[in-house]
Amino acid sequence: MALAEIELCGELIIAASNAEDRLSLESIDEVLRVAEARTDAAGS
Asked: Record's superkingdom (predicted)?
């Protein structure tokens, strides 16, 4: 579980460093795969 969190944090850092401006909440949710997590939780 911790490895997955580290990967997501890394992906968020990369997205933030590549962005010209601040990341929107939608962009952050996309990077962190929030929609996927909600779908997985709903299916459980």
From this structure: Bacteria
pLDDT of 44 > 80? The answer is no
Alpha-carbon Rg for the chain in angstroms: 12
Rounded to 5 degrees, φ, ψ at 24 are -75, 165
Question: Taking the model in full, what pTM does it have?
Answer: 0.72
CB count in 10 Å sphere of residue 22: 9
| 18's tokens | 């590549």
| Distance separating the N- and C-terminal Cα atoms of the chain | 18
How many CB atoms are closer than 10 A to CB 30? 14
Q: Give the H or E element holding residue 14.
A: helix 2-18
